[in-house]
Design brief:
Blueprint lengths: L24 H19 L3 H14 L2 H13 L3 H14 L2 H13 L3 H13 L3 H13 L3 H13 L5 H10 L3 H20 L4 H18 L3 H13 L3 H13 L3 H13 L3 H13 L3 H13 L3 H13 L4 H12 L3 H13 L3 H13 L3 H13 L3 H12 L4 H16 L3 H14 L2 H13 L3 H14 L17 H11 L3 H14 L2 H13 L3 H13 L3 H13 L3 H14 L2 H14 L2 H19 L1
Helix pairs in contact: 1-2, 2-3, 2-4, 3-4, 4-5, 5-6, 6-7, 6-8, 7-8, 8-9, 9-10, 10-11, 11-12, 12-13, 13-14, 14-15, 15-16, 16-17, 16-18, 17-18, 18-19, 19-20, 20-21, 21-22, 22-23, 23-24, 24-25, 25-26, 26-27, 27-28, 28-29, 29-30, 30-31, 31-32, 32-33, 32-34, 33-34
Length: 606
């Protein structure tokens, strides 16, 4: 008799076949009719009908009814029946006898039986035999065989694992597609760290396999696909995949969906998904709920969720408890929670603990925690450690501080970049200084913008003149940086922008910037504003600003006031301001003020 093909292959996963759920009445009736037809054919000696009938009964869980049909078909040489007989015996607990029938079917060319036989040998630790049979199955295009072979090779660290995982994925195996996507995703991350363009292509390939697995109901693939889409800014589609994954029971997807909804302004819906994820043991979701209640002032509820996060193994729970206690002024408890998280390796908790100790005057205790946090990658801790070293004043500590600042600056810390820029200026390395100042200024540091402007200003050649002798003015980069710093409230930059405007003849603009600087406490701004007002004929108002500048220690303003009062005939007041100018300096001002004071003194004594 001819050997039949795999017409009723059931053993795919190694799990017991469960009775199918009843469908609608039409489907049930159709199945019943088909079973009767196959039974009549089997009773008439049709081997294929015996095999199909045995498979139908096996699928329904009727092992006693299926076994004689499968044995009869197997005896007649049907390899599908031999495979399914192996399934039946495996379910009954006769693994060795099942393997015997699988071997018969596999030798006859059944890819499903070769897969089952390969898994049987692997479960018993016979990896060479397992690889042989799994390879037989995989090479015949059996998706499960390819996946099982890939899994075995991957376990052994064999480079050929990915090729078989890809084969299984391309044949529709969803777990293979997911695992292949994860492997490619990890490789893309490494390529991205190295700055290679290949990372983008790998990520696109990973996305393709995530989609394949997610479309077949793989909830973790849907989660990772959602994360890729969210990172790319495709939030609607990301939300759909998170929702799909969350409904299938993936807590991390429910948590991610919560964050997506929160960012969209729907806090109430976010809380619903966070609650669902937290109840399933997601610590991140529990932390999010804690933060939500903390924002609402519900500190007891927040604390309960932070503790739940901690119980779920999320160290952020202890850190957040520390933050909560610190905000409430419960310093001792905050220190306790920070320590717990810090000892578990939470770098920001280590940094927060160090700050807490530093605020309490325990510099010795703070330093190792700053150091530990910095070594773990905390940028803020590296910067804070730099401040700690710089405050000690020794040359060795200054070098250590600079190393800390450089580490933080390399990670994008704005203030650290400013400190490195200042140090390089002090060392005379203008090129390195400019590079760091640009980074800090670009990050929003007004002081860095001002210092960068001064570096560029010093290089600026004298402005050329038109043929008619009028100064030609083109907006320079240094002016742009001065204005950026000035707009951020930097007083010296505001004075400088005012000076540049005055040099252009724009008195209104100059006065505006001088006034802004003066009102913020700049004595130079007050003095310059006074000069501008005096030139415009408003000497009484100028005197008001010079008085403010002189009271803040500006010698030239004091000298100007002495001259104003001398011209008015108020000699005693003029002498008083001249005395003040002599004291304040600088040297040239002191000399002039001294001559004026002596003259006023002689006039008063005459």
């Amino acid at each position: 008799m001819d050997v039949m093909g795999d017409k009723a292959t059931l053993f795919e996963t190694g799990r017991f076949v469960q009775p199918s759920e009843p469908g609608d009445a039409g489907e049930v009736a159709e199945e019943a009719v088909e079973e009767v037809r196959q039974r009549l054919a089997a009773e008439a000696g049709d081997v294929e009908a015996m095999s199909v009938l045995g498979a139908m009964l096996l699928r329904r869980g009727d092992l006693d009814g299926a076994e004689p049909q499968l044995r009869a078909a197997t005896a007649a040489g049907d390899r599908a029946a031999a495979n399914n007989l192996g399934v039946l015996l495996h379910q009954r607990g006769y693994a060795d006898e099942a393997a015997g029938w699988w071997r018969i079917a596999a030798v006859a060319g059944s890819a499903a039986a070769a897969h089952a036989l390969g898994r049987h040998h692997r479960e018993r630790g016979d990896e060479p035999a397992a690889e042989y049979w799994l390879r037989q199955s995989a090479e015949q295009g059996h998706a499960l065989g390819a996946y099982a072979l890939a899994d075995l090779l991957e376990h052994r660290g064999d480079a050929g694992a990915e090729a078989w995982m890809r084969t299984a994925a391309e044949h529709g195996h969803r777990e293979a597609a997911y695992r292949l996507a994860r492997a490619i995703d990890r490789r893309a991350a490494l390529e991205g760290e190295d700055g290679s363009d290949n990372g983008v292509e790998l990520l696109a390939e990973a996305e393709q396999f995530y989609r394949q697995a997610a479309a077949r109901g793989h909830r973790r693939a849907a989660l990772h696909l959602g994360a890729i889409l969210e990172k790319r800014g495709e939030l609607k589609e990301a939300g759909r995949w998170y929702l799909t994954s969350a409904k299938d029971g993936e807590a991390r997807a429910a948590c991610a969906l919560g964050f997506l909804l929160r960012d969209a302004g729907d806090t109430e819906s976010a809380a619903v998904w966070w609650l669902r994820a937290a109840q399933d043991g997601d610590g991140n979701a529990a932390n999010a709920l804690g933060a939500l209640h903390a924002e609402r002032g519900e500190t007891q509820t927040a604390e309960r969720w932070y503790r739940a996060a901690m119980d779920a193994g999320d160290d952020n729970g202890a850190y957040n408890l520390g933050l909560l206690c610190a905000e409430q002024g419960r310093t001792a408890q905050a220190e306790q929670w920070y320590r717990r998280a810090a000892y578990a390796g939470h770098r920001e908790a280590a940094n927060a603990l160090a700050i807490l100790l530093l605020q309490g005057g325990d510099t010795t205790g703070a330093e190792p925690w700053f150091s530990k946090a910095a070594e773990a990658g905390s940028v803020d801790a590296a910067f804070n450690l730099g401040i700690l070293y710089a405050g000690r004043g020794t040359e060795e500590d200054a070098r250590a501080a600079l190393r800390c600042y450089e580490r933080a600056a390399a990670a994008g810390h704005t203030e650290a970049a400013l400190q490195v820029g200042i140090a390089r200026l002090r060392d005379g390395d203008e090129q390195a200084a400019e590079r760091h100042l640009r980074c800090a200024a670009g990050g929003g540091s007004a002081e860095a913008a001002y210092r960068l402007a001064t570096v560029l200003d010093a290089r600026r050649p004298p402005e050329p003149a038109h043929e008619l002798g009028e100064p030609a003015h083109e907006r320079t980069e240094c002016e742009e940086w001065y204005e950026r710093a000035a707009s951020q409230g930097h007083r010296r930059a505001q004075v400088r922008v005012g000076m540049l405007a005055a040099a252009r003849g724009d008195v209104v603009e100059a006065a505006r910037w001088y006034r802004e600087a003066a009102e913020a406490g700049s004595r130079n701004g007050a003095f310059n504003l006074g000069l501008l007002l005096a030139r415009e004929g408003s000497e009484p108002e100028a005197a008001v600003w010079w008085t403010r500048a002189a009271d803040a220690g500006h010698g030239r303003a004091a000298l100007r006031l002495a001259l104003v009062y001398a011209r008015r005939g108020e000699l005693a007041e003029g002498q008083r301001w001249a005395d003040r100018a002599v004291t304040l300096g600088p040297a040239e001002v002191s000399r002039r003020a001294e001559r004026l004071r002596d003259a006023l003194r002689q006039e008063l004594s005459a």
